[in-house]
Amino acid sequence: MRAGDADSVSGWVSEALEEKVRRDHKLSLLAAAIKDFEREFGEITADEIASQQRADRAGATVVRGKRQSATRTERTA
After folding, report:
1. Which residue in 39, 59, 61, 41 sits closest to 51, CA to CA?
2. Is the pTM of this model over 0.70?
3. Taken in order 56, 62, 65, 71, is the CA torsion positive or negative?
4. CA-to-CA distance for 15 and 18, rounded, in angstroms?
5. Are 15 and 6 in contact (CB under 8 A)?
6. How high is the pLDDT of residue 27?
7. Over the stretch 10-35, which tens digit does the pLDDT of each residue have?
8. Residue 12: helix, strand or coil by DSSP?
9. 49: closest CA among 34, 63, 71?
10. What dihedral do alpha carbons 26, 28, 29, 33 form, nearest 10°?
11. Collapsed DSSP state (helix, strand, coil) of residue 2
12. Residue 1 pLDDT > 60, yes or no?
């Protein structure tokens, strides 16, 4: 079955609920890991988060799909 396809509405709802359960479980594991980290090393500050975000952006590789050429009206507008 392709993503977004379902045999019925109840099948679609069931798949959505299963995905929510998986996502909620992952989030609870992440929350526990953060709690353990902060217990050992102290609270993660907003400055530390901002610093890490800047470092992540600086080290990121930007990947984009092929760019579609503009239509004639878009080029002249």
Report:
1. 59
2. no
3. positive
4. 5
5. yes
6. 98
7. 999 999 999 999 999 999 999 999 99
8. helix
9. 34
10. 140
11. coil
12. no
